[in-house]
Structure formats: C-alpha cells, structure tokens
Known about the structure:
The complex is a heterodimer of chains A (111) and B (351). Chain A is an all-alpha fold and 111 residues long. Chain A contains four helices and no strands.
Amino acid sequence: MAKSYYDPADLRKFGKITEWSEEIGTKFFDYYGKVFEEGALSAREKSLIALAVAHVVKCPYCIDAYTKDGLQKGITKEEMMEAVHAGAAIESGATLVHGVQMMNKYDKLSM
Amino acid sequence: MATKSLKARHNELAEKNEQLKILNGGIFEEGELPYFKDKIGLTGHFPLRPKKLEIFQINLGYMCNQVCEHCHVDAGPDRKEIMTRETMQYCLEVIRNTGAHTLDLTGGAPEMNPDFRWFVEEAAKAGIQDFIVRSNLTIIRANKKYHDLPEFFKKHNVHVVSSMPHYTRGKTDKQRGDGVFDKSIKALQELNAVGYGLPDSNLKLDLVYNPSGAFLPGDQVAMERDFKKALKEDFDIQFHNLFAITNLPISRFLDYLIASDNYEDYMYALVEAYNPMAVENVMCTNTISVSWDGWLYDCDFNQMLDLKVDSKIKHIKDYNEDILNDRDIIISQHCYGCTAGAGSSCQGTVA
Ligand code: SF4
Ligand code: SF4
C-alpha cells in the first residue's frame, strides 16, 4: 500500500476504474469525452472552466491534468490564473453569502 | 536558455548512443511501456516500409543563429558542420534523376550555408518545382546580408515554413531566446510585404508550432484559429497554415525532459496518444533525409541519432532510388513522437 493518499502516477491509471465496473465506467468516460469536445463553447473555454473547478474541488489530479491541457491548447498562464481567481471568487462568495443566513438567524433570535 | 549546443557543452547526450540507450532502456526495457516495434506490429505495420519517394530533404548544416532549448538538431552558432558545394553537386545529380518532386531544405539555419542561394538556383535549373525552406525567421533580421531573403524566396517561389512557438512574446522568447519574438514578427511582416502568406497568394507561408515544454500540441485547427486571430489583430500578420508538431524525445529536448524530471511522464503521454492511423503517413514513408556530409537517413530525427538507412546505399554519391526504396525503416521509441494524436510530420498532422 502507498504511504500517502495522492500519488501523481495514479492519474495515468484513472482509466482503470472501468475494470471493476465496466459499463458505468465506460459510460462515464464517453460522457466525459463528449463534454470536452468543441460545442457551443470552445474546447479552450471548457478547459479553463475545468481548471477553475479543479481548484475549487481541490483535486490535485485535475489541477495537474488541466494545467497540462491548458498548455496544450496554448492557454497563457495569465488566463489560467484568472480562471483560478474566478473559481476562488465564487467559492468565497458562496461562503460569504451564507453570512446573510447568519444575519437572518441572529436577527430572529435577538430581541 | 542555453547559449551553446550540447556538443560544445560536452554533454553526455551529444553522444548519439547515449540517447539510444535511454530510449531503448528504462520504462521500455522493464516492460512498463511497449516498444514502438511491438506497438506498430499490432496493426501489421512492422517492419515499417517506405512508399513512393516524394520529398528529398537536405540538411544544409547544423549551424544556426539561434540555440533553441528544444532543438532536435542540437544546432547553434558553434556548430561548424555544413554541406560543401561538392556534396551539393552529388545532390543535384540525384535531383536530376529522382522521382521526388519536392526539395525540402533544412538545418540549422539553411540560409547560413554560404552556398545556399547557389544551390537553390541550381536545383531550380535541375527541375525542382516545389521548394520548401525551413526558415527560423530571425535569420532574415540577423544580418544585412540576409535582409533580401524574402525577395530571394519570392523569386524562386520557395514555400517558406517557419517556426513560431506562440503568438505571445513571453512563451516564444522562453523557448527560442530573448528578442526572438520581436524579430520573428518583423520578419513575418516583411514576408507579408512581398506577398507571402496573403489569403489568395501562391507564395506559401506556413507556420510550425511546437510546444514549449513537456506537453503535446493541442488540436491543430483550434491552434491555427487562435494564432491567426492573434497575429492579425496584434501585428496585422497573415499566413496560410499552422502545423502543430510534437517534440521528439531526442537531443536537446531529451536533455530538457530528463533534467526537468519529465521524461517518463512525457513517454507515457506519447504512448497513450498513439494513433495507429498516423503510422500510415509518418514522414519517413515518403521522404529521404540527407545530412550535411551526404549520408542518407529515413528522416531528420534518425539523422540526429546517427541511424543511417538500412540499405546497401548509404551515401548520396552512391544513390540508387530502387535499391534504397527497398528497405526497412529504422525505428526506436522516439518514433512515438510521430504517431501521437493526429500525428506529426513536417507537414503537421498526418491522420
Ligand atoms: S532555429 Fe531551429 S535549428 Fe536553430 S536552434 Fe532553433 S530549433 Fe534548432
Ligand atoms: S522518427 Fe523518423 S523513423 Fe521514426 S516514425 Fe518518425 S519519421 Fe519515421
């Protein structure tokens, strides 16, 4: 057994998850592949969205994968960092907007 | 950025055998990844054989005004190996008799060979219709004596193929050296000014994009769209096609991969992106590569690994197309660079 939870080399083995559940694993990868094709959004735009989400969900595999994907697509580091900020802003906004709930509850409980 | 070739730095990898040892050993020897020969064998492509010879690619020498970090030629100002007029005479003799229709001149910076113009003129007389010159662009601005190259290219209807790693300054200069971006932009504008690369012009100007790092090129069509938009908007530059080319793990790029601890991941990525469709059209199937000293190779990459053709005919002075075409192409694990994704040749994707 590995001595740490994350091993960069595990990313290469991602495809193997189908081995223990072939049908839904394959369906997932088909879906995944389809999602990132050129569509109403360009593959480039989707790559930046994926990079932002990768940071929000704090997945080291996805961060590695979509940094590389961005490089492959010619995305600049400035664009990548702005995408990360967009994700971070939504994440902190989502925390802060709950402040309204706290304020509501406070007001309700207070005389 | 390095300022000297591996050869001048006495780097171990300047020794071709060292490169082959790495490419044949490690993760391949241990069976973690399949040998190229076994991979292409699965679709009946082993041994790899040439088809009809179409392109005669001549390397006029390893001398270059740049020392790009990824260079598979290990070219630079310190490399003195350049083709002599005598060897060019042998080439011309072959050009008069070959079935190949395209002459592809590469280097180094082919324009730095003092007999470059003479050779192009003689080859035109010898009946070559399609000339390709792989120009690094900055050479046009490097010295006064090269300023009129766009006019010279135009006169002989040379198809200019130039490298441009990115449409932003930062990425370009990082890969190719400080100031390369600005000089390249200026050179492209000059080529446009004489008519190269304009939408309806038959003066062909294509760009080659290769990644500046340990990753594979993205989709060629999407990259071309981004390059066209950015170069037009920012610099009013036009060109015809963009070829997205994968860096092969040899020479300076191999040195970089190993030094940055990216070698294994990169080989995994190449093998994973293997596309059996691309094997059909790899460059070596329709090209012969000639080195500055007249030896014959399956491709420019094999030339840099000193893997001479597996044929009785090994030198331009003994050239015989029928015998030469009846050969097996020499392959190793660097060949995965030609079959990754949509594939890679000097003409960009092949599948
Ligand atoms: S311009 Fe081309 S030949 Fe010259 S160093 Fe750069 S990659 Fe090598
Ligand atoms: S590296 Fe050369 S021999 Fe190998 S596949 Fe590419 S063109 Fe052919």
